[in-house]
Amino acid sequence: SHQSSAARCSCRGISKEYPKSHRSMAEQELRQRKPAAAEADKPAAPGAAVKQPPKRLEFSREKEAERWTKLISSASESAPPAAVPYLKMMAPVLSAVLVGLHMALPLILSAAAAVDKFFQVVPAQLLVAVFGALICFFGGMYPATIAAMEAWQQAGGRRAYENARDLYIEFKRVMHKSAEDDLKDEDGDGIADVDQISGKELFMRKAHIALTTCDPDKLNGAIQGIYTGWVGVIAVLKIQFAKTIALGSAIGDFLYSPALRVATPVLVHLIPEDYHRWIPSLVLYVCKSIALSIAWYVQRVISAFHSAIRGGLLCSRGVLNFMNSRGIIDFNDTESYLDEIVGWSLAAAGFYFQFMMGFSMPFPFNLLLWPFGVAEWYIVWTVSS
């Protein structure tokens, strides 16, 4: 039949066995289609309106900061009325910090993974030697941070690392979904939908994405594991630095009375009369801060001396034991004095280095190691509070 032959034509092309009349009809149809295709390929006439393709929205740090500012401003409305203006004022700063953290998190996780890989590959004796060298030359500069790392390792550092990794994976999933949502333009006007809604609507929209994307069991387990480990670290540090805290408190109490007598006549002329009742508290806080700074400086000197000896011996024994395991030298740390000679020499060099640096990281290394400085300040503040 004609219909079956037409079906064969559409599937296999026009064959020699196909009837002439039907071939001529197909050729005529193709001739009619060619002018339309040629018209479509022709350039547009001058002055004619050209149909533009829809705009493709891209990620922008500025737009991301604006959305975070809108979210923080909307969330601050549920805060106490007295704090709302300050929260809205701080919203741009907080949004910039959050965007920076979002961009830095992959680098931090990559660095942590590289350190973990390094620990797995390097022999145990060399790890001991590297750790000993670090605390020998830098133990007095970051005493609280090094103590926290040791306590963290004892409190289950490997498990805490896995919890932090799970938390980052969940955060990454949420941010990926949020980034896809930021690029949605359902009305096709070239402006993202999230930039056309109010702060409250944006907050509810992002909260819905977070709640529907996260795994609640994994999220709860990760937060609980990290918090438990951190509480254990703080408990250990409070016991370890109890003498430092007591010394700071004693120095603060000693400074308070004379400082109040000297500062009050000056502050009454500098502070409005309505705020004069805050003068004793202000003087007390300043005295406590100065006292804690003195106490922690004394602790840095003590930690530098102790860590130099401990780190020097760890480094020397680690290197010598590694060389003995490779057959380079014949060494037995229970019979030989070589580890003590090398260790005490390193200890003297480490303490002298820290003393010459004023028990603080020199420039420009303090800029490179600023995360450790921030961690040191936060741990000291947390332990002393």
UniProtKB/TrEMBL annotation:
This protein's record includes keyword Membrane: yes
Residue ranges of the TM segments: 93-114, 126-149, 341-360
This protein's UniProt keywords: Membrane, Transmembrane, Transmembrane helix
Region (Disordered): 1-61
Sequence ranges of Basic and acidic residues compositional bias: 14-32
Domain of life: Eukaryota
Keyword Transmembrane helix among UniProt keywords: yes
Chain intervals with Low complexity compositional bias: 35-51
Name of protein: Uncharacterized protein
Biological source species: Rhizochromulina marina
Lineage of origin: Eukaryota, Sar, Stramenopiles, Ochrophyta, Dictyochophyceae
